[in-house]
Amino acid sequence: MARITASVYTSHVPAIGAALDLGKSGEDYWKPVFAGYDFGKEWIKEQKPDVIFLVYNDHATAFSLDLIPTFALGTGASFTPADEGWGPRPVPMVHGHPELAAHIAQSVIQDDFDLTLVNKMEVDHGLTVPLSLMFGQPEAWPCKVIPFAVNVVQYPVPSGRRCFQIGQAIRKAVESFDEDLNVQIWGTGGMSHQLQGPRAGLINREWDNRFLDRLIADPADLSTMPHIDYVREAGSEGIELVMWLIARGAMADVAGGAQPTVKQRFYHVPASNTAVGHLILENN
User: Fold this and answer.
1) 103-135 pLDDT per residue, tens
2) Of the listed 193, 227, 268, 278, which one is catalytic?
3) What integer pLDDT is reported at residue 65 of this predicted model?
4) How far apart are CA 122 and CA 127, in angstroms?
5) Interatomic CA distance for residues 245 and 247, integer angstroms
6) Is 125 labeled as catalytic in the residue annotation?
7) What is the pLDDT of residue 176?
8) Most Cβ neighbours (<10 Å): which of 20, 136, 205, 257?
9) pLDDT averaged over the chain?
10) Class of residue 40 by CB neighbours under 10 A (exposed 0-12, middle 13-18, buried 19+)
11) Is 227 annotated in the active site?
12) Peptide bond into 191 cis (omega under 30)
C-alpha cells in the first residue's frame, strides 16, 4: 500500500526563487537562507519519494478573484510553471500522479470534504519555490507532484481545525491506495510576514518559534487557534501557516501511531522582509 513517510514544511517566498534563478544564492544576504536547506537536500536524496502531495496557496495566477476554491486538488498529468508577471520561472514542468489524485479525491470527498478538482492549471512560486529549495535546479523534478491549493488569500479562509482534519482524511486516502508508493506531504507558506499597510514588514520571531514547538508537540491543540491570532501575531500573510496543519494532520501519530522524528528545524530572518521557517518530520 502507499504510505506517507514524512512531512516537510517550508516558506515559499518568491524572492528566494528569484535569488536562485538569478544566481544570487551565494551572496552574503542569501547564504544563510539556502544553508538551512542543505540537510534537506541530502535527506531527500536518501528518501527518494515517489510522490509529493504539496499543499500551497495560489497567488491569483491559476485562480483569479472571480473564482476562489477553498481546497483545489490538481488531478492533471502535468502542470506548467506560471508567468507571474516577469515570465515563468526557469524550472521543470511539474508532473502529477492522476491515479493517486483521483483516488484521494474519491476518498476525501466521501469523507465529507468538498474539493474542487482541477484537471488543468498553472502552478506559481507557492509550489515551485519549495521544490527548488529541496531539489535545487535539476533538469526534471525527480518525483511526481500532486498540487493542493488552499485559499488563504480571500476571506473567509478555512480554519486551522478544518485543515488539520483534511490532513487526516488525506492520510487515510493515501494509505488505502493499492500501490507501493513512498509519499511525502508538504505544507508551505508563512511564516510571519505582512506585505502591506501600517504593519508591513512585521516579523515575530518568538511567536513563529512557539508555533513550531506546538506544531511538533501538540498539533491538535494548535489547530484550535483562531484566525485572529495568526493575523495579530504573524501578520496578514501569516494566515498561510494553517496550510502546515494539513501536512501535520497527515502524520501517523495523529492517528495513534508513534511520534514523528524531527529531522530538521530551521528558522531565519529576514528573507525579503519575511521570516523563513523549515521543518522535516519523519514517520516512525
Assistant:
1) 999 999 999 999 999 999 999 999 999 999 999
2) 193
3) 87
4) 10
5) 5
6) yes
7) 98
8) 20
9) 97
10) buried
11) no
12) yes
